[in-house]
Amino acid sequence: MTPRPSLASPARPTPLPRRPDRVPTPPWFRRWAGGAFAGVALAAASTAAAADAPRRVVSTSVCADAYVLALADPDAVAALSWQVDHAISGAPPWARAKPKAWASAERLLTLAPDLVVFDPGGGGRAAAWADRFVVAHISLAWAEDFDGVAANLRALGAALGADAAADAAIADLDRRKADLAARAAARGGDRGALYLTPAGGSAGAGVYVDAALTLAGARNRAAEAGLSGWGKAPLETLFAAPPDLLVTSYFRNGYPSAGNLTSRARLHRRAFASAPRLQVPGAAWPCAGPRLIDAAEMIADALDGLAPDSAGTAK
After folding, report:
1. Which residue range forms the structural domain that includes residue 289?
2. What is the DSSP letter of 247?
3. What stretches of the chain show up as alpha helix (H) in DSSP?
4. How many CB atoms are located within 10 Å of the residue 74 CB?
5. What is the chain's alpha carbon radius of gyration, rounded to the nearest angstrom?
6. In terms of domains, do 259 and 184 share one?
7. DSSP 8-class letter at 256
8. The total number of structural domains that make up the chain
């Protein structure tokens, strides 16, 4: 029985822990799978190729889950990732009851997929297995902005035979982006926001949290303080000019971590205790996925709720 992975603290706000597929495949299993099941796998692949769309879609990560749930017919979803029933997943109840999958050739063999969706890290040995047995698969691209989200939707839509659904999802994304841009212009002001994780991490320029803050109409104070990518919040600069809005995530619904109890984390909480705070559910952005726009809208709602005289306090 494959052991369940430990729930370690994320080094950054994309908590994608190690997959439970680290036990080497024994030679006897490869011979057994290659011989006894080759005909079955090839026949399944031929049947799938003849169909208009995949009928047994398997997702192997929480990020892939979000895209699959946005586009696939629920009846075609054969399995979702082993993270689907964790706090960082935004899956509906019916999806949480699906069989669990991960990027393991042995596990995928038992699920008999006709399309496997891997996370941006790729499928490794599992992808090689899929190639060997002519099972269609796609690895999502790592995205750090809304254009990347749209590109993944378009690519997965093509793989699913769901181009119309992908076009509709992208059109909805564009409409919501335009609405947020109009709200930011109408709001005016000069509001600064800071993203903070339990261990004191933050998001600087060039990452998807920055994209959500910017689209919502906030100045990313970590980026302005010189942080690029993921890193520690620049305390010295921020103490001198506190943000108008503190955006937190994973304090209540992320992975447990000793880092959450560190003195640095407590220092952050005390330092920004007076700032208005928005808790964005971790499920909204474990990666740049279809729900990243939800996070941007939550931030915009919080900015709309700030007192008029709070605008511009963070210079």
Report:
1. 166-309
2. E
3. 27-36, 38-50, 62-71, 93-96, 105-111, 125-132, 146-160, 163-187, 208-216, 221-224, 235-240, 263-271, 292-304
4. 11
5. 21
6. yes
7. -
8. 2
pLDDT value, residue 42: 36
DSSP state string for 127-195: HHHHHHTT-EEEEPPP-SSHHHHHHHHHHHHHHHT-HHHHHHHHHHHHHHHHHHHHHHHHH-S--EEEE
Q: What is the pLDDT of residues 45-85, one digit of tens each?
A: 434 444 568 999 999 999 999 999 999 999 999 999 999 99
Handedness of CA 71, 77, 81, 87 (dihedral sign): positive
Q: Write down the pTM of the prediction.
A: 0.78
* pLDDT tens digits for range 80-95: 999 999 989 999 999 9
187 and 283 part of one domain: yes
Q: Tell me, rounded to whole angstroms, the distance of Cα 232 from its chain centroid.
A: 21
- Distance from C-alpha of 37 to C-alpha of 44, rounded to nearest angstrom: 10
Looking at the fold, whether 135 and 197 belong to one and the same domain comes out as: no
Where b means 16+ CB within 10 Å and e means fewer, 173-198 reads beebeeebeebbeebebebbbbbbbb
Check whether residue 103 and residue 215 sit in a common domain: no
The CATH number of whichever domain residue 261 belongs to comes to: 3.40.50.1980
Structure tokens at 115: 């399309």
Contact criterion met (CB below 8 Å) for 243 and 315: no
| Tokens standing for residue 290 | 């279809």
Amino acid at 148: G
Contact 126, 112 (CB under 8 A): no
The model's pLDDT over 112-144, given as tens digits with 9 standing for 90+, comes to: 999 999 998 778 889 998 998 889 999 999 999
Asked if the structure places residue 99 within a domain, the reply is yes
**Contact between 219 and 314 (Cβ < 8 Å):** yes
Q: Are 207 and 144 in contact (CB under 8 A)?
A: yes
